[in-house]
Design brief:
heterodimer, A: 420 residues, alpha+beta, B: 173 residues, mainly alpha, two-stranded antiparallel ribbon, 4 strands, binds zinc ion
Chain lengths: 420, 173
Amino acid sequence: MASNVVVVLDNGGGLIKAGIGGERDPTAVVPNCTARPLSSKKFLLADQLLSPTEDLTSAVLRRPFDRGYLINHDLQSTIWSHIFSSLLHITPSSSSLLLTEPLFNLPSIQRATDEIVFEEFNFKSLFVSDSPSLVHLYEASRRPYDVVSKAQCSLVVDVGFSFTHAAPVFQNFTVNYGVKRMDLGGKALTNYLKELVSYRSINVMDETFLMDDVKEKLCFVSTDVARDLQIARRRGSDNYFRCTYVLPDGITHTKGFIKDPVEAQRFLKLSEDGELPHSEGTEEADQTEVKSKPSERNKVDLTKNEFSLSNERFLVPEMIFRPADLGMNQAGLAECIVRAVNSCHPHLHPVLYESIILTGGSTLFPGFAKRLENELRPLVPDVYQVKITTQEDPILGVWRGGSLLASSDSFISSYLEGKD
Amino acid sequence: MDDDVSNSLRRMSTRARKVAPKMVAALASTDNRTQAILARLEALENDNPGAEVVEPNDDDDASLDEDDDQVYHKKQSKGTKRKTRQAKALETAKKAPRTFLELLHDANLESLPPHVPSYLRAAVGPPSSTCRRHFCTVCGFSAKYTCVRCGMRFCAARCQNIHNDTRCLKFVA
Ligand SMILES: [Zn+2]
Ligand SMILES: [Zn+2]
């Protein structure tokens, strides 16, 4: 029935995930911002920014979010309006809205949000939810025999765009007094990477879109920082982390790209002692030839705009684990989790440690879960099991939980039918 | 953030308002190292660090026209040149969305009883261990030395020179 359409909107500071309740995936996953390319007077928004031909070099950015909270409702409603009409093709006045809001949202922001939902868009009804409870709901439904659903309890670790939360969920509700927040997320990581590259090779301070791409494709979490720093010091092809990223030239390509993807992925094959396996089709006899080639390849071509990365690839995500080492007076992720657990009833501690769920785009760095486990294990009493699961899709997890909720019988009977 | 800071901020022009938080904090502290850390944190939140210098009004300029395509045109700033500075500042203050820190200040969460969970109480807080690994702020490798002026780390004379030339006590990136 058309009148029962529930629009599910996971309104993130970085990305909006929007679609129709009951479907597996959102219809739109688009940046929650507008940007004006240098060569243009027009501000592009949402999906327009994803066009592969759009040159976003030095584009000026505006976001409706500041530090994880919605501050510019005018801009937000313009972006929503575009999404509702051009991407979802829905009529708000005959739909209900399931909206995510950040934990501890301020009352003034909630009022302003209600206002645009009802007065500007005229939605039939609004149901507001938070990320941890939706992630829990989704995981519990996927793993009916797991401790997550049996104990109705989990610890959702959401490394988002503006901040990171460790949030205990109990009986499908986020336990607010147990939530701990680090003021660090994907945005700070991108900006940190911008700083490092700008100081060390080429000025990319205004290249948010480009550096997001570099971060997503090249950064990883080290499981042994001291060892990896040693490797990153080496010259030539023995430096398994060195790789080159080519900047767009605005003529032949409008997007940046990794110069040699095979070289960039070498680190994934490193053994515990930090060496590469010898096989890989390079026989001993070929060693000399192989060695000379990559070192030439590693030379930065100054006629092209490109830069090389090495220790930056793992020092950037390192900030999530040890913010203090990088000048921020905050505990790292493992300690954040321990503090969240400790603020709950001791009966819950073993269950929470056994049901840690990682979500949010920044958990996608290779090595993330393993490093977290290495750091967390020594902080947790030996008798408790530590079990960390990364969501199958950490970017869409919240939305999928919302979609599931929106199509559940109890939701329909209590929030949709009950309203009339 | 205290009362004086946030109230005075709202009366300033866009440009001043954007740079102000870190400058106010920097001026309030007598310690170069604190200033350097504050400036650094501020920088990690900024989307358009370069644009701030070149086109100061851009980011907060809410005076945008909407066309049928739901795409924005940037209004030419020429028209506003004729207005007095004060009128312009007033206009900007009205239109510019307030920052989260301003909204947070207005919410007065400090007045909540201690058992009520809030944004402020959810902050993870400082690390329990005071051990730090030190990375060179220039090249990223282990750093033994600390700059006596700003407290940033460097590993060797080469990186020290780069530090002194390009980033020591430079608060705006
Ligand atoms: Zn150095
Ligand atoms: Zn210095």
